[in-house]
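Final report, results section. Input specification for complex C-07:
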Amino acid sequence: MWLVAVSVPLLPAIVLASRRYHVQLSSLCLRALGWVLRLLRRGGVCVGSTHSFVFSNCTHGKVDSVLETFDLYAETHPSLSIGPVIGEALDAVVKRVRPSRVLELGTHCGYSSVRLLRLLPPVGRLITVEMDPLTAELGEEVILVSGFKHHQFQVLTSSSAEAVPALRSHLEPDGSEGFNLVLMDHDPLLYLADLQALEREELLCRSGCSVLFIDRKRRAGGLRGILDHVRARSDSSCSVRTELPSLLEVFYQKERAEGEAEGI
Ligand SMILES: C[S@@+](CC[C@H](N)C(=O)[O-])C[C@H]1O[C@@H](n2cnc3c(N)ncnc32)[C@H](O)[C@@H]1O
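Structure output:
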């Protein structure tokens, strides 16, 4: 009631302003609408509906069923999960590297986390970082529904920039070794800064670490910054190992494996 009482005397001024500034006002409204839609897609609708579809349609405890249900969802809905095509390229790298300590930046609903976890050895561990608290919670639930336990993985609710400097404490007791596989699928604009932070913190295992970058938009030069960084390094401790349209693998190694050193 009070709103009506306040608005009525202001009505002529509102009409006048909307006539005079209608171009600016409509552009402001369009921007606000775009912002709300983006917010809904990223933080709520997309994550929430992916989670509830997977949760209610998969067979709990069956990893393959969880992944198939994600793929089924993505056939008819927009999805941020890497999906089966990039997923198979990822599987091939994981099978070759056989990592035991894996870091993922960008958990989302847990699709790639589940894909990674199913290929780790029994002692393997995944740390996955997600900055949106609701998304992190839903992603963690999907990982648990797939049958994985908390001793196998940890979801850190944090931005990558804040998480990286604190990661060593999460790697204990063998934190000195660092990760042997890192998957970046969070924000391509942050890939280079986060890679440099991982190098600075010496979190890439000296005896070998594959760092994977997902470029789902396949933009020309999308990962150019990473490629330039790798090529500009004066030491020969890192090199590009796989370069696919949506996936780039950079391999780091500071110490040669025992067999190699002895020429075996
Ligand atoms: C493309 S999705 C990841 C999809 C996931 N890898 C999969 O296949 O299921 C990107 C996720 O990264 C998160 N994200 C974006 N920027 C981030 C940052 N700086 N730190 C941590 N998470 C971030 C987003 O909230 C989003 O959930």
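The first strand starts at residue 101 and ends at 105. Residues 161 and 194 are 7 Å apart (CA to CA). This concludes the modelling results for the funded period.
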